Write a sequence for this structure.
């Protein structure tokens, strides 16, 4: 029997398709033993692509798939999701963790390929660039430095006393205490972060200058949420970053001159900029690194503080308990302060158990990045929970899946700060176990560098607000969390009433 050429081509193509899309995934693929998230996932990426349309992160379908199929699941023929502590340890922690997929790292690029910042570096086992950059940052974001630093205290005092309190007083005086807090929190965190990163001259003044705040956050969201005009918005952000860096550079030079003349600094110092500069970073390289810190710092805490305010405005019982706890700390009146020791010691703020529990529980239920932290398996592959996964497979943990594990967090969907309060050794063991499952800041060598700064500034902001005001909800439509990489409230607003305490 002989075939004509077209028939032979059709038969060969059919055989190839049969092998590629049926026999290979079912019989040959090293991933064939891993349970599929959906029956299509083993054969095609269609299921996950469908759930990822418009930048979505598929948080809900992946949570459901893990509940049904266990801790290691096949999301597509070449992608795996893991949701066990062993998985987290292997992917993110051991030996510095796996590298990022190229496409994912490049989403964080600014100023071009040659000026990578930490977020846009591939990283992973054996990568020197990421390790070196981390060393360049030094200890400026470490808890020890932050708790004891005069510079950080100065930024915090300046912003609380000259921007936060006056803005709340104005809202009470002129608008019956009504304030949209999502943008307000964004401005507060941008001003705090930029004060530390770019100093007095490079720092933003978004809490006072609403039009520059809105201009910035429009470009920020357009680029980071990949909306129409994303590329123009990215260029706008790059220009913004260069301007901040140029101002910080002038300030460092000024400061050197002043010190040469034996004069005091006086102004907020660009701590982070100066640290990286002292390690030889300059120009666009330095702008790329500092802009990345600024963006991250303006986004994550804004989401968390907004959800804390929402929860506290719904749970007035917990708000009252927090206020009682806050009676131990004191903020001096902004009118008669010399801005020296006018806010509580950071160490005292850090040690308030209910405030800590409220923030931790909010980070659990509403993590600002609830989706996958993408990585790629190294050439020799890895074994997780008994499944071998070969090299070059995209692998991730969805933050929200860990945070909703019902075996670790009873009533996992409920916001219950008291689950983090410990009154006995038995409670300590339970709380420590829960902490092992918390992943809002990622983990391992790529763990958020700004974690301690974020926690400290969030505690400061909330303590300042709730020691002087009671909040209640005016409008909270659209507070459900977006299914995006950076996941704020869908409605991008929360309107509260601030009632001064007697
Ligand atoms: C509530 C606040 C915040 C949350 C929840 C958060 C979350 C995260 C997460 C999950 C990652 C890891 C991403 C990955 O592994 O792929 C990360 C990385 C990072 N974060 Fe944050 N972040 C917050 C605040 C901040 C602040 C205030 C700064 C800077 C001042 C900052 C700077 C960074 C940087 C530079 C990285 C990249 C680290 C690396 O790739 O090695 N973040 N953050």
């Amino acid at each position: 029997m002989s075939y004509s050429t077209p028939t032979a081509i059709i038969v060969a193509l059919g055989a190839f398709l049969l092998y590629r899309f049926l026999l290979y995934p079912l019989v040959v693929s090293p991933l064939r033993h891993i349970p599929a998230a959906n029956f299509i996932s083993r054969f095609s990426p269609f299921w996950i692509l469908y759930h990822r349309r418009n930048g979505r992160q598929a948080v809900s379908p992946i949570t459901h798939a893990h509940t049904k199929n266990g801790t290691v699941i096949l999301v597509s023929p070449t992608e795996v999701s893991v949701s066990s502590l062993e998985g987290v340890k292997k992917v993110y922690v051991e030996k510095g963790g796996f590298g990022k997929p190229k496409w994912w790292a490049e989403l964080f690029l600014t100023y071009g390929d040659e000026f990578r910042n930490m977020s846009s570096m591939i990283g992973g086992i054996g990568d020197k660039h990421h390790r070196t950059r981390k060393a360049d940052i030094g200890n400026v974001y470490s808890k020890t430095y932050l708790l004891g630093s005069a510079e950080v205290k100065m930024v915090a005092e300046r912003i609380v006393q000259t921007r936060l309190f006056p803005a709340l007083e104005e809202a009470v005086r002129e608008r019956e205490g009504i304030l949209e807090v999502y943008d307000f929190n964004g401005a507060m965190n941008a001003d705090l972060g930029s004060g530390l990163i770019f100093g007095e001259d490079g720092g933003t003044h978004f809490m006072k200058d609403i039009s520059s705040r809105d201009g910035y956050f429009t470009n920020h969201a357009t680029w980071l949420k990949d909306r129409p005009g994303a590329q123009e918005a990215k260029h706008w952000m790059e220009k913004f970053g260069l301007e901040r860096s140029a101002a910080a550079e002038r300030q460092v030079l000024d400061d050197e001159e002043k010190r040469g003349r034996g004069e005091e600094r006086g102004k907020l110092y660009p701590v982070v900029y100066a640290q990286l500069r002292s390690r030889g970073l300059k120009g666009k390289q330095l702008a790329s690194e500092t802009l990345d810190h600024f963006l991250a710092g303006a986004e994550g805490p804004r989401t968390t503080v907004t959800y804390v305010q929402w929860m506290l405005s719904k749970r007035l019982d917990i708000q009252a308990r927090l206020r009682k706890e806050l009676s131990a700390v004191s903020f001096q009146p902004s009118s008669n302060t010399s801005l020296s020791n006018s806010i509580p010691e950071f160490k005292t703020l850090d040690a308030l158990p209910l405030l800590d529990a409220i923030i931790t529980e909010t980070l659990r239920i509403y993590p600002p990045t609830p989706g996958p932290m993408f990585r790629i398996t190294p050439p020799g592959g890895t074994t997780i929970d008994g499944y071998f996964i070969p090299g070059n497979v995209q692998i991730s943990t969805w933050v929200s899946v860990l945070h909703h594990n019902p075996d670790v967090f009873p009533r996992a969907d409920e916001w219950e700060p008291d689950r983090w309060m410990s009154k006995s050794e038995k409670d300590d063991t339970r709380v420590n176990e829960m902490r092992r499952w918390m992943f809002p800041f990622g983990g391992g060598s790529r763990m958020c560098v700004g974690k301690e700064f974020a926690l400290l500034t969030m505690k400061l902001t909330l303590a300042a607000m709730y020691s002087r005001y009671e909040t209640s909800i005016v409008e909270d439509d659209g507070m459900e969390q977006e299914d995006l990489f950076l996941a704020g409230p869908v409605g991008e607003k929360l309107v509260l009433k601030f009632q001064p305490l007697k």
Notes: The CA atoms of residues 68 and 110 lie 40 Å apart.
